[in-house]
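[job 0412] stage=complex_fold ligand=adenosine-5'-triphosphate status=START
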Amino acid sequence: MKGQVADTTLTGPVHALDVPAVADSVGADPAIGLSRAEAARRLVADGPNELASTPPKTWAQRLLEQFASPLVLLLLAAIVVSLIAWWLEDASEVPFDAVAIATIVAVNAGIGALHERRAEKAVAALQEMAAAQAGVIRDGHYERIPARDVVVGDVIVLDEGDAVPADARITESRALAVSEASLTGESTAVRKTTSAVEEDTPLAERTSMVFAGTAAVAGHGRALVTATGMGTEVGTIATLLESTERQPTPLEREIAAVGRLLGMAVLAIAAVVVGAIVVVSDIDSAGDVVEVLLIGVSLAVAAVPEGLPAVLSIVLALGVQRMAGRNALVRRLSSAETLGSATVICTDKTGTLTRGEMTVRELLVNDQRVDVTGTGYGPEGELRVDGVRANGEVLALVRGALAAGALASNASVRLEGDRWVAVGDPTEAAIVAAAAKAGVTRHSMAALHRLDELPFTAERRRMSVLVAPTEPVTDEPMVFTKGAPEVVLDRCTHEQTTEGPGVLSADRRDWWREGVDDMAGRAMRTLAVAGRAHPATRLDDESEVGLVLYAVIGIIDPPRDEAAPAVADAQGAGIRVIMITGDHPATARQIAADLGIGDPDAQPVVGRSLEDLDQDALAGVAATTSVFARVAPTHKLQLVEALQARDEVVAMTGDGVNDAPALKAADIGTAMGIAGTDVAREAADLVLTDDNFATIVAAVSEGRGIFHNIRSFLRYLLSSNVGEVMTMFFGVVLAGVIGLTAEGEAVIAPLTAAQILWINLLTDTGPALALGVDPVHPGVLRQPPRHRGERVIDAAMQRGIALVGFTMAVVTLLMFDAKNPGGLIDGTSDVDTARTAAFTVLVLAQLFNCLNARSDDASAFHRWAVNPWLLLAIAASFGLQVLVVYLPALNEAFGTAPLSLADWLWSTVLASAVLWVSEARKLVARRRRQLGTSDPGPDPGGRGS
Ligand code: ATP
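[job 0412] stage=complex_fold status=DONE, emitting structure tokens
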């Protein structure tokens, strides 16, 4: 069995036990956790912490599924009938035809199964990358491990936004609240405590426990794992996880529909062709009937693009892997398609457009401005007033303010190698680093310990702690609050001065506000720090009022170097960039101006002002505003909906628990891989492993590339199929005209059944796949986004396919006529040679068509050599064709005969017509567009007119 339950049979259910008893039963110390060795041993013994899923398909199953298509079954039946006929007539020779067809069908099935396996593996690899992580204490140290490695006895650490990896008994809770809606249906978060509950307490009220599959939404806590995998509460509900069965994406569905439609048309045409053969041929034996039947079925099998779904999912999966290589993890294949059609990107500022490396640059205390030097999170740097090192009373005020700020923080700084790094929230780490510069260190604050915390949330925009002296002396507990200045200022009645707290007059309030605006106008992130004595053991809503303002802190967070070019790229690609930030409007405006987002003269719209707007007004604001400041997560949802109402395809970034609804509602919910919470990641379609805005733009470009490639191989496969069908159709209908007579042959057809299937084998595999991995054209970002619901196979593409198919048929039949005696051009070869030459023309035409199919209107010679796979596939197909023409065994099997060099040259020249005809059509299309609209350059998306 996967997972394990703590052995509590003797002592009762874990929720009713106190912590030491639970620790005893799971054999772990809540303070230092398990040792790594013991955890590894338990993992082997108990199995991974995951829910059992349906076992993967075996090779045999996969292979068998390939034969499930009715057409293939029909073909198999035809082969069996042909074998019987052969046996009845004279079983002297090898039944080459039947063997060749059976071999091709088997090889095709093998390749189909291989393709499917490959697509599944790629998807599985992506899931692995996006797999959940868990924070645990092992050997006394915090570490992050894959959630599947969590074992009974592990101490898990939970912070706001963390997914709970296993069932666990709470050992420590600082305002820890957990959303258990997924398990119990209860929508409000449940506060967790360490106290045991009654044995018969229902699941939803077991406040001493956390359960796998739920998520921490506020506070912090630790818990001792008591059950993993199928042993958890969710494991007992879920018998088997069926979700491994992937739903087809919209594109896959559309293409399946196209395939079906085409299949039906082809079947009808195949029936007509068979009918025509019967009419013009001289059928007088069972063998002839079987041959006609085989041609009909082979034509149907070859022309119905059965390989398409597998190739499509491989192309999607490979594209998604390429995106992963560029730090964009796509969690659903369908999002890879949607990405390409994004019309608006709504992005956070902090850490996404900016580096997220915060440094305190300025402080306002009393009525002084204090500058802070030094960069990064190190303690090197000075505090200066008017260029002179701060000292005396000012220094004391700064120290007090920064100590309060550091105490009201959960982050710390750590020396890694020779670099100081932030551990936890960068804003808080910046304050801790500045405090160190002022001589306030963790050591010097050790005399105080924290009694309670009101956590920071994007809605509250502030955080408070209650601290008390470790040794109960005369000092009272203090509340320290830090947060957005306007929020904190509203809660202050006094300000700290060199003479102690003084009343905060209206004038002084204005002075502070102006100071904040000034800092924000210089792109700084601003925070106010305040506090007061608070003789209590807990914090409540009343604790954050009547505060004394200590200081306003200005933090710089420089824009990422790649942000401005990425914004320009997005805008060039017809995508609007909207910045949505929790920061001050002036900070937002300055950073937006630096990055080229929106109109630099326009005022940012403040989140709260959205609340009073009706639908229409909101849609209007969403249409014209590019910078939103002081935004809470609920506003994000409003904005997504307003934009979607305007038919925009919206990408929206987020990291917090409360961003999840907006991420879910957005067309492309985008979560931060580093700074984001598990909850946000799980709600998202796309996870940025580097939290970088430029990665979104890169992913959009890849998404467009994927769509472009899908169109390329569709164009290729469909025109190949149309070419084959038309060749057979006209070949039979015009048999008399091209000199295809019944002399020496009972059944009249330009190609044999085996030849048709051979073409299918060549085209469906190498070249189609190679087209699917064409490198993304740099021009994809110079195109406007694809419209929502735009057809994959549009009118221009249909025309192109029809033209190419027709050309293929004409040149193939021309070659046949030229080689064959009689007809329009009198040839001298026998019918086998004529057929081989025609067959070769058709195969070569497919290979020329590969180059052609890469765009509807860009020349085939444009970047013709950028895809080595394509060139390799063409060369390999050509090699195989040479074999089929010269190898005696294959000659027998495919009814071919060796060709002369002149035949090859003529075949090549004739086949290349596909290319020239298409080039001419593309030239006309480009001219027309140039005349019609201003030219946006070659159309890499292949959208044509
Ligand atoms: P975005 O990432 O969307 O650009 P943001 O991260 O800048 O937004 P928030 O994190 O919501 O926005 O911060 C909003 C404001 O809250 C900040 O300007 C700052 O004043 C304050 N703030 C940010 N972090 C903290 C914190 N850890 N404690 C207290 N206040 C904070």
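The radius of gyration is 35 Å.
[job 0412] exit 0
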